[in-house]
Amino acid sequence: MAWLIIKRVLNMIPILLGVSLITFLSVRLLPVDPAEAYLRLSKIPITSEALASVRTELGLDRPLYVQYVNWLSGAFRLDFGSSYISKKPVWDEMMGYLPATLQLTFSSIVLAFVISLPIGILSALYKDRLFDHFSRTLSFVGAATPSFCLGFLLIYVFSLKLGFFPISGKDGLLHLVLPSLTLALASVAVYTRMLRGSTLDELHRPYVLYARARGIKERLVIGKHVLKNAVTPLITTMGMHIGHKLSGSIIVENVFAWPGMGRYFVNALFGRDYPVILCYVLLVTTIIIICNLLIDIFHMAVDPRVRRKGAH
């Protein structure tokens, strides 16, 4: 198992290199000159002399491959340069915003799991009955509603009308509820349908028939055997949805004024703050790959078939 984990870690290297190269070239090939963006954000008059000076300072006068190698070597040292807007080191600022984004992302995943688990199980147990139809309809509506519309709706109902939760900001658990719920509801439909389908499949397995024939209580059959096997594919999907949650947090953070990387990234996009953009993309990609690695490790730990398959 240790060798399989090492192989997965080694496979991360070419992926990160490819993402870094594509991102770097995409930013460099934009029509806006980074030197011009730097001068504009620094409120310095844009002249030919100033542009030449900034290009030399930022290394933009060198060949493109040299710029990439220099940036990549700095990234290995966690040195992504300084923000054009704040003039502070990008990595330090990103680390200041990262905890809030991770808190929002993982709390939304946990919340989506907690909501989907009983709904998916009950939908399978009461297949084609009223609860099943109602839960599926509600899930479809939640999946079809854009995050920003859902966020504003929750703010209007639970903050402005009922006063249960704060409107925006980050100052305690109450501030976390509405943003997490907004981000979670988009995944509830997927998780519910997947859990419903996997539960129905498990209910028709021979081991369920044998357990019932032995007189084991239905509650134990569902809770101890069926649920354990039905949840495994859901956990895999949750791990793969980390990237979706991180990208969705950009919208949610701006709706609720949540001080995370999403708001920081949007400000960088509008300001053409290229060091921040490059750092954000590479950092999010790394987080997604690490989460997928952890999911692989989880599968190898609980399913011997995965270990045997990976060994060949």
From TrEMBL:
<dbReference type="GO" id="GO:0015099">
    <property type="term" value="F:nickel cation transmembrane transporter activity"/>
</dbReference>
<dbReference type="Pfam" id="PF19300">
    <property type="entry name" value="BPD_transp_1_N"/>
</dbReference>
<keyword id="KW-0533">Nickel</keyword>
<comment type="similarity">
    <text>Belongs to the binding-protein-dependent transport system permease family. OppBC subfamily.</text>
</comment>
<keyword id="KW-0812">Transmembrane</keyword>
<dbReference type="InterPro" id="IPR035906">
    <property type="entry name" value="MetI-like_sf"/>
</dbReference>
<feature type="transmembrane region" description="Helical">
    <location>
        <begin position="277"/>
        <end position="302"/>
    </location>
</feature>
<dbReference type="GO" id="GO:0071916">
    <property type="term" value="F:dipeptide transmembrane transporter activity"/>
</dbReference>
<protein>
    <recommendedName>
        <fullName>Nickel import system permease protein NikB</fullName>
    </recommendedName>
</protein>
<feature type="domain" description="ABC transmembrane type-1">
    <location>
        <begin position="98"/>
        <end position="295"/>
    </location>
</feature>
<keyword id="KW-1003">Cell membrane</keyword>
<keyword id="KW-1133">Transmembrane helix</keyword>
<keyword id="KW-0472">Membrane</keyword>
<dbReference type="Pfam" id="PF00528">
    <property type="entry name" value="BPD_transp_1"/>
</dbReference>
<dbReference type="InterPro" id="IPR050045">
    <property type="entry name" value="Opp2B"/>
</dbReference>
<dbReference type="GO" id="GO:0005886">
    <property type="term" value="C:plasma membrane"/>
</dbReference>
<feature type="transmembrane region" description="Helical">
    <location>
        <begin position="12"/>
        <end position="30"/>
    </location>
</feature>
<dbReference type="InterPro" id="IPR045621">
    <property type="entry name" value="BPD_transp_1_N"/>
</dbReference>
<keyword id="KW-0813">Transport</keyword>
<feature type="transmembrane region" description="Helical">
    <location>
        <begin position="138"/>
        <end position="160"/>
    </location>
</feature>
<keyword id="KW-0406">Ion transport</keyword>
<dbReference type="InterPro" id="IPR000515">
    <property type="entry name" value="MetI-like"/>
</dbReference>
<feature type="transmembrane region" description="Helical">
    <location>
        <begin position="104"/>
        <end position="126"/>
    </location>
</feature>
<comment type="subunit">
    <text>The complex is composed of two ATP-binding proteins (NikD and NikE), two transmembrane proteins (NikB and NikC) and a solute-binding protein (NikA).</text>
</comment>
<keyword id="KW-0921">Nickel transport</keyword>
<feature type="transmembrane region" description="Helical">
    <location>
        <begin position="172"/>
        <end position="191"/>
    </location>
</feature>
